[in-house]
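Sync notes, pocket subgroup
Present: LS, DG
LS reminded everyone that the earlier model was apo-only. Rerun requested with S-adenosyl-L-homocysteine included. Inputs:
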Amino acid sequence: MSELAPRRRFRRQRQGLVEFLREKGIVDEQVLAAINQVPRHLFMDQALERRAYEDEALPIGLSQTISQPFTVAYQTQTLAPRAGERILEIGTGSGYQAAVLCTLGVSLFTVERLRPLYERTRPLLRELGYRANCRHGDGTKGWEAMAPFDGILVTAGALDIPRPLLDQLREPDGERPGGRLVIPVGGTGGQVMQRIERTGPASFEAEELETFSFVPLIPE
Ligand code: SAH
């Protein structure tokens, strides 16, 4: 197999996944195009790659999972990132969600709390050509030095909304709306996806969306 072949493998399966996500209600064509481009099978153990294009969360070690493709598509669609925006992801994990965001042309910052995952995923993203800024640390604190962000995406279930994440959203400016936070909130029974927009220096507007099941967001 040639050097380029790994990315091209599973093309039919990937297209099948995109059609499935479309039927399940994902309407953002840019998000669907990104899912169609990112080789999800390269973000997991090779032993699992045959299942990479099923709509399933799969184990990545250390009791963590690569999110279900529908969840990745849904969160990305809800965040609605535009090319060039500064986006912070909490929970780098496998790097798959990060790769989808990079494919959409954002300037990506991503934080992972488990060192072995950080150490595995950072070089993987680089090797595959995704220019994400990776950091090892507690994402409930955000990434202060790189703030403010146009968008923050939390990929683990939070018991409550970490204050630093709200503070690190960009304030609205003239015609331009403020930054937005997409975060699943709730305990082990399931989390409600929330979309929170900064509407002023100390004001925010929250919207509750659908229910999901995430691994927990664990503060330091
Ligand atoms: N976005 C990932 C999803 C991984 S699951 C992907 O596409 O694969 C959630 C991840 O959040 C796990 O890797 C977990 O270790 C990480 N996590 C949990 N609590 C965290 C915290 N406080 N700060 C940063 N990462 C955290």
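DG: The mean pLDDT is 96.
LS: Strands lie at 58-61, 64-66, 86-90, 107-112, 133-136, 151-154, 180-185, 191-200, 203-212.
Action: DG to write up.
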